[in-house]
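Proteins fold reproducibly. Take a tokenised chain:

. . .
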Amino acid sequence: MRIGIDLGGTKIEIAALDDDGQERLRRRLPTPQGDYPATLQAIARLVDLCERELGERGSIGIGIPGAESPASGLIKNANSTCLIGRPLRRDLEALLGREVRLANDANCFALSEACDGSARGAASVFGVILGTGVGGGLVVGGRALRGAHAIAGEWGHNPLGEADEAPPPCYCGRRGCIETYLSGPGLAADHFRHTGQRLDAPAIERSAAGGDAACEATLQRFEARLGRALASVINLFDPEVVVLGGGLSNMQRLYRNLPAHCGPHVFSDDFYTRIVPPAHGDSSGVRGAARLWD
């Protein structure tokens, strides 16, 4: 039995998969906000609940909103900042009494979709998270790439400045990161900068569909930026498939409009990369975490 855990900013989700990838159980708890010891205990409680209910002990893989430093073993680059500088894997292994495998949550998402999701059968996959933050994961030959610094695929903190405006600040300490434009909060902030209206991403999408010109303009800016940002990854990695995940991936217009925004920036005579929604939706992260033991 493979147990996967998705450690998110608002929820901790657990799923157990059998050898065929079929789901046997799924549960979730709220993430204790800003409380590292309570987060450890919540994970242990979910594992205990799962194994008691199924009557079986499993391997454990965990997707996290950050990365484990190869140099120190401590967590870095986490937008759940209570994890930063903590020996998360060591603490969980002591608490759970077994080896634990960690990976960035976007890597887990990409791995799930490459194994048995929308990118099944593709030799190379870029999995994108467009949600509260912006992340990415790279999969080649069915294996997630970690990288020398454990940051492979982390395109969300590449710069995407605009010539006509001051770049917005990012939590990472830089300015003008892709995440500040292409996350859900980034989309809402861009709309506010241009209109003075405080709307979240779903409201902007609904209003644009209803004919609101300002909201439509915001989404067109978003799509143009996303196309340009994806093209930079495609030029470097040249994946067969790009899978979009996170809350903004539910905007169906992206799959119609993005190829036209990517193509002009891709260094090729034609543009073949498929841009697709996830097969497993928000379940991909936890399924990919379980597959860290494949």
Observations:
- The chain has nine helices and twelve strands.
- The mean pLDDT is 95.
